[in-house]
Amino acid sequence: MHALIVVAHHDPRSLTHSLAAQVAEGLGPSHSFEIADLFAEAFDPRFNLADHAVHRRQAPPPADVLAEQARIDRADALVLVYPVYWWSMPALLKGWIDRVFANGWAFDFNLQANTFEKQLGHLRVHLLGVAGADAGTYGRHGYAAAMKAQIDHGIFDYCGARVLTSELLLESESQDPQQHLRTARAIGRGLFAGQAAAAGLVG
C-alpha cells in the first residue's frame, strides 16, 4: 500500500515536518510513501484563469495540477499534515486543494445538465492539524466543529472521499513535542491496518 503525505510548512525543521516524518516511519517497511513538500516544491496555490477554465470544463488542467492529481491517484491513502492558521489550514494547502481537486477529477458538475457526481469515493484521507491553542479554546468557541464542517465535510465529503482520521495536536508550542510525535507515528502504523487485515496480511 502507498501513502501520499502532503506537508504545508515553510520550515523543514518544524514540528509539522517532524510529524510527517513520523507518519512515514510508522508505516514500516511493508508499505511505501511519498512526501509532497508543497513549499519546497514551490507549488503555486493561486487559482487563476486557467484553473477557472478547468472548472468550466473549457480546458484541461495545467501540467502542475495533472502531476498532483496523478500523485493522489497512485496513493491508497492521502495524509495532510499542516499547522492551523486562523482556525483553518494554511493558504498554501488550501490553494493546493482549490487547484488540484478540480471539476472533472474530484467531482463532476455539469451546469447544462444540472448534474453532480462525487468522483473520489475510493480515496481515504487522514488529517493531522498542528494547533497552538488548548482544547478549551477549541471547544468554547466551536473552532474544532467548524474545522470539521469546513474541511472534513465541506471539502472531502463533497468529493466523496472518506476522512478516516482527523486529529488536532493541541498546545503544540507549549507541550512536549514527544507526545505529538508518538501520535503521528501511531497514525502511520494504523494507516493501512484495516486493509491489511481484510487482505489476510495480519493476524
Automatic annotation (TrEMBL):
Q: InterPro entries from the xrefs? A: Flavodoxin_fold, Flavoprotein-like_sf, NAD(P)H_dehydrogenase_qn
Q: Which residues form the Flavodoxin-like fold domain?
A: 1-183
GO molecular-function term, one example from the UniProt record: NAD(P)H dehydrogenase (quinone) activity
Q: Which UniProt keywords apply?
A: Oxidoreductase
A cellular component term, taken from the record's GO annotations:
cytosol
Concerning its family, UniProt says: Belongs to the NAD(P)H dehydrogenase (quinone) family.
What is this protein identified as? NAD(P)H dehydrogenase
